[in-house]
Design a protein that fits this description.
The protein is α/β, with parallel strands linked by helices and 163 residues long. It contains 6 helices and 5 strands, in the order βαβαβαβαβαα. It has one domain: Rossmann fold (3-Layer(aba) Sandwich), CATH 3.40.50. Strand 2, helix 2 and strand 3 form a beta-alpha-beta unit. The structure holds 4'-phosphopantetheine.
Length: 163
Amino acid sequence: MKRVAVYPGSFDPVTNGHLDIIRRACGIFSEVVVAVLHNRTKKALFSPDERLELIRANLKGLKNVRVDSFSGLLVDYMKKNNISVAIRGLRAVSDLEYEFQIAHTNRSLYNKMETVFLMPSDKYVYLSSSMVREVASFGGKFTAFIPRNVARALARKNREKAV
Ligand code: PNS
């Protein structure tokens, strides 16, 4: 039986921690759909298209993954695409409360839905997109934690802001 899972998130921008979760999920599920949230009310650093492209460029070699975007409720996207499993990365206990809230809210909206939590490598336990954005905005180098294309894109954003 084909087991499809969605890995939803803001991915603003994608980090090595996200890529680690994607690789682990690809080893478990027949197909993984990375779904980038396009939230019209929340200002993101990267546009949905930029975020999709930054992810896509790092998935070469993984055959059972594709990238998509969604707006509105995750459960609506899942129902429309006939997907009942969502993957979320769990870094530390501090993530639990937020993740439980999301998982239970989603399940109350779609009772067939299961959330599967995967742990990234311990190298990425303290890594987050917001930390990456903050460090990059002050010119800090975070290259061990983000793919090269993301480091270049962040530097480009900083130059644009400085003009
Ligand atoms: O990477 P993030 O920002 O922690 O991901 C959060 C995300 C995108 C999974 C969550 O905010 C989401 O699914 N948003 C879509 C709107 C929705 O379905 N809300 C109800 C559950 S919180």
